[in-house]
Amino acid sequence: MTTAPATTAPETSRPVGLARAAIGLAQGFVLYLLFEKRAFTDPLIHTAAFLIVALVPVLAISSLGHLRAALLALWCALAAVALAVIGVHAAWRETRLLQSPQLAPLWPDMLPLVCFFSLAILFIGHALVLAAAHDKRRLASYATHFDIAWKLFIQLVFSGFFTGALFLALWLGASLFGLVKLRFLESLMESPLFVAPVLCCAFACALHLTDVRPAIVHGIRNLLLVLMSWLLPVATLLIGGFVVCLPFTGLDALWATRHATVALLAANALLVVLINAAWQNGAMGDAVAPVVRLAARVACALPLPLSAIAIHALALRVGDHGWTPDRIFAAAALLVSAIYALGYLFAAIDKGGWLRRVAPVNLVAAYAAIAVLLALLTPIADPARIAVDSQVARLESGAVGADKFDYHFLKAESRRYGVAALLRIKEGKTGPQAALAAERATRLLADQPGDDGFPQHTVKAAEQLTVWPASARLPASFPLSTWKVNTGVPRCLTDPNAHCDVFPIDFDDDGKDELLLMASNSYDEPVVFSEGARGRWTVSARLSGMTSCAPFADLLKRGDYRLVAPRTRQIVVAGLPVEMDMAATPVLETCTSLINTLNAREK
After folding, report:
1. Is residue 4 part of a domain?
2. Largest separation between any pair of C-alpha atoms in the chain
3. Residue at 7 is within a domain
4. Which position has the higher pLDDT, 471 or 158?
5. Residues 363, 409: one domain?
6. Which of 334, 398, 433, 479 has the smallest number of Cβ neighbours within 10 A?
7. 8 Å CB contact between 323 and 387
8. d(CA 288, CA 293)
9. What is the pLDDT of residues 524-552, one digit of tens each?
10. pLDDT band at 284 (very low <50, low <70, confident <90, very high)
11. 516 pLDDT exceeds 50?
12. Are 288 and 160 contained in the same domain?
């Protein structure tokens, strides 16, 4: 059995269409003023204004013809206030408190993430508001929520596709005219004053066209859901098989991946989407194939063990290393995932109807998602603030020593909260080793970044570097160094998700170890670092040709190597030494010999 869509075309579509096009043009012009004319130079105001101008007009365009004028104005005003708070906080938290007491606002590094989360909040909230207005009650029926949410999703996707296609068509036209020396369209395409209003107006018109043809959107939605529902048995078989195998394989291999929580959350998200694609609004009944119905009921029981394992994995990481922003985002996602897991389990064991409890679970999860995202994007549960408090508490309690504490995390990855914490640590009153902590904090605060425009990163020594042999210790000054991308250093020094093996070796026989870094699962060549004045580390040599020679790293880890003097003397021309590198053929032969040697020893 199928039900008619709850959404209908807005009345007086022509005036509504003209109003929507006008809003799109105005939105594009204001965006042009924000970015090209710098209408606001203060990042606090600029970020808030950008979020409001980018998202609130879309709400107004979508609401025209569906909401009364008073309700439309109230909803847009409420959204604007929320976005203003989110935008101001996003820029404010970027402020660095260094040696100067003055605050210097910076552009928010996490603006793309803020935009994505803000869009998610408004999407869920807009679906709830339109559904309530359609049913003329505060809490609409689930069927209305389902129809409107999917309609909005399809509208946004197709409107974005239409806008992108129009942009490509305009560029193609400009290129064609350019072939015959007519440059007027190229000049227009290079002008933001033309491009921004045109694209925003195109997006508004696309929203209008998909809104006045609800039958087409309804048909596309049904086709998409049917296709997705047939993926459910496959996903259930694979994920269910994974869960069944865990008691036999153990969890050690899962923990070793270092991203178990993310993978399990992704599996949960996939199951939730596919379950809802099969269940839809609950009115399909016997129209759903028996194998899909069975898969849906089994799939409803899988999020609980997946969520439990993910929570355990996250708890282990937090217990060992404390909270970080990434772990707080994961915890927030697990909170919403737990709501789905528990609710869907009760839906699976309910025999009063086919998964009838899915509807209230989805509504509760929607409101929970809005609350969680708002908390993360405001000071209520700012991940950087919580992470800094956690890490500093570990230092104060002695859970981590001052010589192993991750100071660079406070300076480089915790925004204003982390730098403020470094200033407190600098006072020498934090933890059992307060003096050492103060010295490290003072040194890091004094190390100002350059102005060459390269993004900078400081490595998480405890998580990204493995020192060989295990008895060796990483020099205390190395984790305090700041590295820049695109400067030839291994990826583990510029990417928080990359890993390197480190071998302290005294290459120049001066009684002081250099550091040989070999990136794991990467094509970066091994690099040797030497420590200079004031504890600054620089690249002193590269081992070209050993990039993909796995036995080389294996033998180094075993300690199966020795240092010998070079067989070829160095050449110096006009007082400048010229480096001599191995030729390609000897390098390949060396790697092949290493493979043969390693295989022979293993036998």
Report:
1. no
2. 90
3. no
4. 158
5. no
6. 398
7. yes
8. 6
9. 778 888 888 767 788 888 876 666 667 77
10. confident
11. yes
12. no
Helices 43-63 and 13-35: crossing angle, nearest 10°?
A: 170
Residue 456's DSSP bridge partners are: 484
- Do 41 and 139 fall within a single domain? yes
Per-residue confidence at 214, pLDDT binned at 50, 70, 90?
A: confident
Domain containing residue 423: 383-446
Strands 576-578 and 571-573: antiparallel
Indicate the average pLDDT of the chain. 83
Structural contact between residues 414 and 421, judged by C-beta atoms closer than 8 angstroms? yes
Cα 379 off chain centre by: 20
For residue 538, give the 3-state DSSP assignment.
Answer: strand
Residue 103, pLDDT above cutoff 80: no
Mean pLDDT score, 231-257? 89
Domain count for the chain: 4
Give the position of tokens 């800094």. Answer: 388
Q: 181 and 273: one domain? A: no
- Looking at per-residue pLDDT, the higher value among 502 and 284 belongs to 502
Q: 358-376 and 142-179 helices cross at what angle (nearest 10)?
A: 60
Whether 265 contacts 314, CB under 8 Å: no
Indicate the DSSP class of residue 11. Answer: S
In terms of domains, do 72 and 189 share one? yes
Tell which of 365, 381, 397 closes a domain. Answer: 381
Q: How many residues does the chain have?
A: 603
The answer to whether residue 557 is domain-embedded is: yes
CA–CA gap between residue 339 and residue 364 (Å, rounded): 8
> In percent, how much of the chain has pLDDT > 90?
41
CA distances to 201, 296, 350, 358 from 277, in Å: 32, 10, 19, 12
Q: Say if residues 186 and 17 touch (Cβ distance below 8 Å).
A: no
Domain boundary among the residues 423, 446, 469 is at 446
422 has pLDDT over 50: yes
* AA letter at 526: P
DSSP symbols for 118-161: HHHHHHHHHHHHHHHHHHTSSS--HHHHHHHHHHHHHHHHHHHH
Q: Are 200 and 240 in the same domain?
A: no
Do 409 and 371 share a domain, yes or no?
no
Residue 389 belongs to a domain: yes
Find out whether the peptide bond into 490 is cis, omega within 30 degrees of 0: no
As a whole number of Å, the end-to-end CA separation of the chain is 67
Same domain? 206 vs 126: yes
Cα distance between residue 324 and residue 382, in whole Å: 11
Q: How far, CA to CA in Å, does 89 sit from each of 57, 85, 104, 382, 595?
A: 21, 6, 14, 9, 55
The pTM score is 0.74
Q: Which of 271, 265, 278 is nearest to 336 (CA)?
A: 265
